[in-house]
């Protein structure tokens, strides 16, 4: 495994596009701010070990979006270290970038406001993930080893306080991006990123929509714990007509458009090879073993006997394990139908995890925004309850999600043996299915369960978000006993290199165990 880890470092460093800066962090005059920002965008890509050891080994099984059919590596710390290292490298770069901007705009600091707003949005996205996966983290003193007041061993900050500060930063960033035009008060042009912004092409409106949509996601996540604050903020967003991500504006990392190849996703499935379609999601997307939702054909494929066969989410003793090689490029690129004789359960769709160019890594989808709005109007969060609007937004979300996944199939150059896709009329029929459609006058929990279930399905390639939703509510489809996996343990490196602060944090929590709840679950 050590060799594999070293190999990953080499492969990641050699990926096309997003080259490593390899510059002295103490010499900011050697770099330009656009290149550092480009490095921050590249850090949004999912790490290889993260995908293998956290997504495929743990999160798909815990959320029941998939199932692990046999015990595998269990090397969770390799995935944890991957996320931890990625985040704190990015945080260091972000703080270094702010220093560079301060030097460049010393005569007129306002000129850096827009780029700083974009940095805040990007880093908020990454920081929220860290908080949701681990709980409290080093933040205020972190990534300060090269600052004038160097801090090598940072303290852990309270998760709730960081959450609130991030929401404030997002509100301020949105205001700047939506309301700033022309030159600064001193008459100077604002700094801009131009083509170095590989996420939105320096489109301020897109950045503002991302920021507003992210606010909505995380405000609803903490609603049950902070109802008054959330109602006030959501009410302001609705009253002010805050622009949100809409159809065709999904926030994604798309290799074909950004000049890199997603080699890690197939590697993570190929090396793991035990992830299969579980009975929970199959039963939700099918009826009497007939597919009723087109996403089933896109997420999964038949076993080696061309049969739809889920692995039981709660497998009885003696259940045969699944083998074969359904994710092996060397085999299936040559003979698509050869999934291996022992592949007796339906695997994830080969091309969904094989395409290195046209299948994106999803940050925030337009469908998710529709489902968030459906919840807002169903529950009356910051606005009067309105079942009609909630039902409409829910239907929009379903249509947007199904079309998004079908578009991925159509736009994939390498995807052969494409499944039959649903027509627009057939997609509307899916939304009318009693299992999915909201019922006027039904108990709020019954309709909320349907909204959450659709978000869960749409998170199919965002298992970390499904994990957060699962901890937020007990209304998701589930066959396993009640979940008690609430967070990942801190990486071993923290207990080695930041022992005193790590020890203080563990003492505060009671233990560094996976059954310790993050702050918004309490």
What characteristics describe this protein?
about 525 residues, mainly alpha, two-stranded antiparallel ribbon
Would you give an account of this structure?
It is globular and about 70 Å long. It starts with a helix and ends in a 13-residue tail after the last helix. Helix 2 runs antiparallel to helix 4 (76-104) and helix 5 runs antiparallel to helix 6. The protein is mainly alpha-helical. The model is unreliable at 1-30 (pLDDT under 50). Helix content is 50%, strand content 4%. The chain is built from 20 helices and eight strands. Strands 1-5 form a two-stranded antiparallel ribbon. Strands 2-3 form a two-stranded antiparallel sheet. Strands 4-8 form a two-stranded antiparallel ribbon. A hairpin with a 2-residue loop joins strand 6 (286-287) and strand 7. It has helices at 2-14, 33-42, 48-63, 76-104, 113-134, 159-179, 204-221, 227-239, 255-258, 264-272, 279-285, 295-299, 329-332, 366-379, 387-411, 424-431, 444-458, 463-472, 492-497, 499-509; strands at residues 67-68, 137-138, 156-157, 251-253, 275-276, 286-287, 290-291, 361-364.
Beta-strand proportion? under 5%
Helix content: 40-55%
Roughly how many Å is the radius of gyration? 23 Å
- The helix-and-strand class reads mainly alpha
Provide mean pLDDT, rounded.
92
Instruction: Specify the overall morphology.
Output: globular
Beta strands, count:
8
Quaternary organization: single chain
Q: Biggest sheet, strands in spatial order?
A: 1-5
Distance between the termini: 37 Å
Question: What characterizes the major β-sheet?
Answer: 2 strands, antiparallel
Low-confidence stretches: 1-30
What's the SSE pattern? Answer: HHHEHHEEHHHEHHEHEEHHEHHHHHHH
Number of helices: 20
């Amino acid at each position: 495994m050590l060799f594999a880890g070293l190999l990953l470092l080499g492969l990641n460093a050699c990926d096309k596009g997003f080259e490593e800066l390899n510059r002295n962090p103490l010499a900011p005059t050697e770099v330009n701010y656009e290149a550092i920002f480009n490095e921050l965008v590249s850090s949004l890509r999912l790490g290889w070990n993260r995908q293998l050891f956290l997504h495929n080994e743990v999160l798909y099984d815990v959320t029941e979006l998939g199932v692990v059919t046999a015990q595998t590596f269990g090397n969770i710390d390799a995935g944890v270290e991957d996320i931890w290292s990625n985040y704190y490298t990015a945080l260091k770069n972000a703080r270094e970038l702010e220093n560079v901007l301060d030097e460049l705009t010393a005569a007129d600091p306002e000129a850096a406001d827009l780029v700083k707003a974009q940095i805040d949005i990007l880093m908020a996205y990454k920081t929220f993930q860290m908080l949701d996966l681990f709980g409290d983290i080093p933040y205020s003193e972190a990534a300060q080893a090269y600052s004038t007041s160097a801090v090598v061993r940072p303290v852990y900050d309270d998760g709730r306080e960081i959450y609130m500060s991030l929401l404030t930063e997002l509100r301020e960033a949105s205001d700047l991006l939506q309301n700033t035009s022309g030159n600064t008060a001193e008459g100077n042009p604002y700094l801009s990123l131009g083509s170095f912004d590989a996420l939105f092409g320096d489109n301020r409106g897109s950045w503002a929509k991302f920021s507003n949509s992210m606010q909505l996601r995380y405000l609803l996540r903490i609603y049950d714990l902070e109802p008054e604050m959330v109602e006030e903020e959501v009410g302001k967003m609705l009253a002010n007509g805050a622009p949100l991500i809409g159809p065709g504006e999904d926030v994604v990392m798309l290799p074909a458009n950004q000049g890199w190849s997603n080699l890690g996703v197939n590697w993570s499935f190929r090396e793991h090879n035990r992830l299969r379609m579980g009975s929970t999601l199959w039963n939700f997307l099918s009826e009497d073993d007939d597919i009723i939702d087109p996403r089933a054909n896109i997420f999964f494929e038949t076993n080696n006997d061309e049969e739809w066969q889920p692995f039981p989410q709660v497998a009885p003793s003696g259940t045969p394990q699944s083998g074969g090689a359904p994710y092996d490029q060397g085999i299936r690129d040559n003979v698509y139908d050869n999934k291996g004789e022992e592949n007796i359960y339906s695997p994830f769709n080969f091309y969904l995890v094989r395409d290195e160019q046209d299948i994106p890594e999803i940050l925030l989808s337009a469908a998710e925004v529709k489902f968030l709005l459906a919840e807002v109007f169903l529950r009356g969060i910051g606005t009067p309850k309105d079942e009609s609007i909630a039902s409409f937004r829910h239907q929009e979300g379903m249509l947007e999600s199904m079309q998004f996944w079908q578009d991925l199939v159509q736009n994939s150059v390498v995807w052969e043996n494409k499944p039959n896709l649903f027509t627009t009329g057939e997609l509307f029929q899916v939304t009318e299915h009693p299992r999915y459609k909201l019922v006027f006058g039904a108990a709020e929990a019954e309709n909320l369960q349907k909204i959450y279930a659709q978000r869960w399905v749409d998170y199919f390639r965002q298992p970390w978000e499904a994990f957060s939703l699962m901890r937020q509510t007990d209304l998701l489809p589930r066959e396993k006993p009640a979940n008690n996996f609430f967070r990942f343990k801190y990486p071993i490196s923290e207990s080695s290199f930041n022992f005193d602060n790590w020890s203080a944090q563990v003492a505060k929590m009671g233990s560094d165990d996976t059954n310790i709840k993050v702050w918004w679950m309490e």
